[in-house]
Write a structure and sequence with these properties.
The complex is a heterodimer.
Chain A lengths: L1 H16 L1 H25 L5 H29 L1 H7 L4 H22 L2 H9 L4 H28 L3 H21 L5 H10 L1 H9 L5 H27 L1
Helix pairs in contact in A: 1-2, 1-5, 2-3, 3-5, 3-7, 3-8, 5-7, 5-11, 7-8, 7-10, 7-11, 10-11
Chain B lengths: L1 E10 L2 E11 L4 E5 L6 H8 L7 E6 L2 E2 L3 H7 E4 L11 H11 L4 H14 L15 H13 L5 E5 L7 H15 L3 E6 L2 H7 L2 E6 L2 E6 L1 H9 L2 E8 L2 H11 L4 E9 L2 E8 L6 H11 L3 E8 L3 H9 L6
Parallel strand pairs in B: 3-8, 3-9, 6-7, 7-8
Antiparallel strand pairs in B: 1-2, 1-4, 4-5, 9-10, 11-13, 11-14, 12-13
Classes of the chains: A mainly alpha, B alpha/beta.
């Protein structure tokens, strides 16, 4: 437990203390601000639907960038050997890394609270929808982070981890976009299991257990896969 | 302290380490020698619980490797190339290592100070690790590996890439540590192992080829005793005299150096035959004068060469 927190703290320090961390953060905030501002001035409405609709796209480009070095660099630099020979379980390593990544993303999402507060000053904002949408955005980020962490556990090269993460997230995203053109049976499956479909449900302001559980379960699956990918290296 | 029993590790069908057996006593500095790809690093990775053995077992401080979490607390490990987090400064890195090992906050700072000064890091405590020279990084790695006060240190090529001064410093440091801790270090620099280690083992192709002190190894490699001498007088009479006391003696080389002086190299297969004494008495009996005599020893290089080129010790 203490090892997990120590690892999380170290990652947190590197992601905020070094250019690679804050360049990603600033770029994310600039892009998100652009999408918020442009839809606000185009529609002239006090809601954030458009921003939340675009958010998954931002995730697709930024979450792999935030996560790519987490495990790939450790494997590449040989520091993983140090970590794995300390009195730490592999699962603590995975969770420590994951917590730091989630901390980073949560921090960025908290900074975007500026948008709803601005809208509150300008008009009537339905806070229920905004809150459920933020929960959805956070859960989606949790799932995407776990997927990208898994991508980072697969390779020693941060760039490959980025590409693999990007492709994984794109597949999830395009699956929902392309579903109308697919056979009905497949469409049903996608409606049932597509994270973006469940995200869109939650944007309507309804928090159902099914939606939340889908995100939680899928996140666990990818964390377990990351753990497995690291353990497997020892046996090769 | 370290007991290794029939340890094996396979990569696919290939044995990286095969049936390894050895023990390292408490407080001993053991050197692990071998050419590249001999299985030194794999052995160390198994002993530090990074790689699980394919078969066989080892114990450290009485604990089997299967008891991995407890073993890790006993062992300090410096992997090859001394990896560390280049984005952190030395202090933060040592703090992180201390936390990972669960050193309580109260004693952590003192421990870091102690190790930093033992490894000569005081001047660079707040420098980022990527700004440091290779020698300092090696020392940072060494300090980090000793932070939790392990009983046993496993160092994989601790002096590669260092300049001669740094090598001497790191050697002194290891020697000093060796007084309190059990140290297993690998290297392919032979004089270094000779200077630092109490005993050494030579590995090749995953198998143990020889184990012992450097004197024992040279004796084994030679397969007998070798004496070189300079003799003034009648060399033929001396030779017959010597052959009559030690019939198995073999003259390897005989060369007239100057007027009446002959340089001669004599070998005998039995290391206990007291060849030097026999040479002396033979010279006396044949009326020759012994100007110079030396017991030759195979150098560690010879031993290494012989063992890792397919030859076996006799």
């Amino acid at each position: 437990m203490s090892a997990m927190l120590a690892l999380c703290q170290k990652e947190w320090r590197i992601s905020l203390d070094t250019p690679q961390g804050y360049v990603v953060s600033i770029a994310f905030l600039l892009a998100s601000g652009f999408f918020f501002g442009s839809s606000l001035f185009l529609n002239g409405q006090a809601d954030m639907r458009h921003w939340f609709a675009v958010l998954p796209l931002l995730y697709i480009f930024f979450i792999p960038a935030m996560s790519m070095r987490l495990l790939a660099d450790e494997l590449h630099d040989g520091t993983y050997e140090l970590l794995a020979t300390m009195p730490t379980r592999t699962i603590d390593i995975v969770l420590g890394k994951y917590l730091s990544l989630m901390g980073h993303i949560t921090f960025l999402l908290v900074l975007t609270w500026l948008y709803p507060f601005t809208l509150l000053l300008l008009g009537h904002l339905d806070m229920g929808i905004v809150l459920s949408s933020y929960l959805a955005a956070w859960l989606l980020a949790a799932l995407f982070s776990a997927m990208c962490l898994y991508a980072s556990a697969l390779t020693q090269h941060a760039m490959i981890a980025y590409i693999v993460g990007l492709v994984l997230l794109l597949v999830v995203f395009l699956m929902t976009q392309a579903s109308p053109t697919l056979p009905i049976a497949v469409q049903d499956w996608i409606a049932m299991l597509g994270p973006i479909n469940h995200y869109q449900h939650m944007l309507r302001g309804v928090v159902s257990l099914a939606d939340v559980m889908l995100f939680v379960c899928a996140t666990f699956i990818f964390l377990a896969l990351s753990w497995f990918a690291l353990e497997r290296r020892r046996w090769r | 302290m370290i007991k290794v029993k029939n340890l094996c590790r396979k990569y696919d069908a290939l044995f990286a380490v095969k049936d390894l057996n050895f023990t390292v006593k408490r407080g001993e500095v053991m050197g692990l020698l071998g050419p590249n790809g001999a299985g030194k690093s794999t052995t160390m990775k198994m002993l530090t619980c990074f790689l699980p053995p394919s078969s066989g077992d080892a114990s450290i401080g009485g604990l089997s490797l299967a008891d991995s979490m407890k073993v890790r607390r006993l062992v300090g490990y410096l992997p090859e190339h001394a990896p560390s987090y280049h984005d952190l400064d030395v202090e933060a890195y040592l703090q992180f290592t201390g936390k990972m090992h669960g050193i309580p906050q109260g004693t952590r700072q003192d421990k870091i100070k102690e190790m930093a000064s033992a490894c000569g890091l005081d001047a660079v405590m707040f420098r980022r690790i990527d700004e440091l020279s290779k020698g300092y990084r090696q020392r940072v790695g060494l300090a980090a590996s000793m932070l939790h006060d392990p009983e046993c240190l496993i160092l994989d090529e601790p002096t590669t890439g260092l300049d001669p001064n740094q090598i001497v410093e790191i050697r002194h440091l290891i020697r000093r540590l060796g007084e309190q801790k059990t140290v297993l270090l690998s290297s392919h620099i032979l004089p270094e192992v000779e200077a630092v280690c109490d005993r050494m083992m030579i590995m090749d192709k995953g198998e143990l080829q020889a184990l012992g002190t450097s004197a024992e190894l040279s004796k084994q490699a030679q397969g007998g005793v070798l004496v070189s001498a300079s003799i003034q007088g009648e060399i033929d009479r001396f030779s017959t005299q010597l052959q009559s006391t030690l019939p198995d003696v073999e003259v390897l080389q005989q060369k007239a150096v100057e007027d009446g002086v002959t340089h001669i190299e004599i070998q005998h297969p039995d290391p206990e035959c007291q060849l030097a004494q026999a040479v002396f008495y033979a010279a006396v009996a044949s009326g020759a004068v012994l100007l110079e005599m030396r017991n030759e020893r195979a150098s560690l290089e010879d031993v290494f060469h012989k063992l890792t080129q397919g030859g076996q010790l006799s």
